[in-house]
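User: Protein folding is very new to me. Would you mind checking the protein record under this note? It all follows right here:
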Amino acid sequence: MKIKIKDKVYEIKISEPREGEIKIVVNGKEFIFGERESGGGVTVAKTTFPKRDFFKKEIKAPIAGVISEIFVKEGDFIKREQKILFLSTMKMENEIISDFDGKAKEILVKKNQEVKEGETLIILE
């Protein structure tokens, strides 16, 4: 993935976590976090990551509102930047798009359901 901070673009790659360790590469420079010793006997980090939840692809509500339309169903393959639902708030329809490619594993909302900001709407696998 790429992120932009103050007009500088960073390319970030995150490896599948192994027991007690994760590798993150930023613009080609490797960082390893976990319960291990690096050169000089310094512990890099004392952090553990869940085996799969760290990489869970969740589409969350960016704002509170009411689900007015759902365009996908469980089992559908969703492409990154695909329109997946409308979220109504203050008489406006907000188009929610996916940040990920993946299969819709669980759709956690229904039409006309109220949701809170940050609530998970759809889980992809």
Remarks:
- The radius of gyration is 18 Å.
- Residues 56-124 form a domain with the OB fold (Dihydrolipoamide Acetyltransferase, E2P) fold (CATH 2.40.50.100).
- The chain has two domains: 2-53, 56-124.
